[in-house]
Amino acid sequence: MSKSNLIEWAAVAGLIAPILFAVVVAGLTIAQADFMGTLGWHPLGPVIDWPSGLALGPYGWLMTVTFFLCGTLMAFFAYGLKLALQDKLGTTLLMIAGFAMMALIFTTDPTLGTVTKTWHGILHDSFFAVLGLTLMPGMLLLGGVFQRRAEWQDLSNYTWVTLALVIPTFWLKGVAFYVFLLAILTWGVVVALRLKATQQVAAY
Question: Is the pLDDT of residue 203 over 80?
Answer without folding.
Answer: no
